Amino acid sequence: MRAFTVAGLTALCASAIAASLPDTITVKGTNIYPEDTVWDSTRDLFYQSNLWRGKVSVWDNKKKEQFDVNIPGVTSDGTGDQQAAGVSLSSTSNAKHFFVVAKNSAAFRFDSSQKNDGACSYHAFSLPLTRDSKPKWSVYFDDVQKEFQQRQGTRPFGPVAAAQDNDGNSYVVFALGIPAVAKITRGGKNVIPWGYENSNGSQRPGYTGVAFDPQSNKLLAFGGPRPLTAYDVTSDWGYPTAVKINGNFGTLSGTEKLTLVPVNNRSVLVGARSPYAIAFHSDDGWKTATIKKTKDDRLANVGFTVVTYYTKGNQIGIYGGGAYFSDGANGGRTDFPLYKLDSSILDN
């Protein structure tokens, strides 16, 4: 029988504890109300979109420190014309740039005050971020929305999320009007009405999340007309292709953000649809996909919007978080937990 000293066992236990993923990562800051969250693996920082105030929140989980980054023309006291929606990084590792989608504050008012032509925009920052960071470049979407309308007949609005391809191009998805994808070329030089399809007539006909898979060179849009829609980014123009889902996805109502999780040289996509996190796996370049779900009751009343991936050592974790929409802009909340979810849905 192999013998262990008390000191040796203590060291082994300490090592195991140090390497374990936390059950909860609690971001602290007043009235952050994040619609989206990404983790910067290089700098070990969490970036979040402060929905109502139209700014970026940066959380250092090691130091337990938080600071804000303002976005000129977007940031407000919570009553501004634009709100911060999706956030994204130029790559899952060694990211050099950070991006924010801003939607119009009246876009998601499903009453007589709703506007489909209010200001909405997209902003690129160089990393690392500081309190004094300013956008490297910004674009507004009014012109491209008009171009979509000329082509299809309906104006898309409510941009909510973005993803970046291997060449530095960005793709922004619209949740309202029609399902549409605007392509922004590297450096913000051109904004193109790249891909779209007809509305299915629902209240939220467009895509709610988007991710780029570098393995297949495909852009994947989440929600709207179907669970998953693929676009080939090597094409000059985007043509939507339905991904055949093997398994019971359930309702399209309530879909939110989509996250790419790199797992052992595979790309797994995880979407948020309260109270489920839904993982998509594909072995054929996203012609078809199988799904796995996990449900966490802690997410039932948080306005669940996003699944964020986080690693520690060789462990890969996925965490769910929400925007607490019912609190409004001035709810006074100071703790915004990210809850560790069952990562077995990442297994193929």
TrEMBL record:
Signal peptide (UniProt feature, chain positions): 1-18
Signal in keyword set: yes
Record-linked SUPFAM superfamilies: Calcium-dependent phosphotriesterase
Name assigned to this protein: Major allergen Mal f 1
InterPro entries membership: Mala_s_1-like
Coiled coil stretches, renumbered: none
Record keywords, A-Z: Signal
Organism name: Malassezia cuniculi
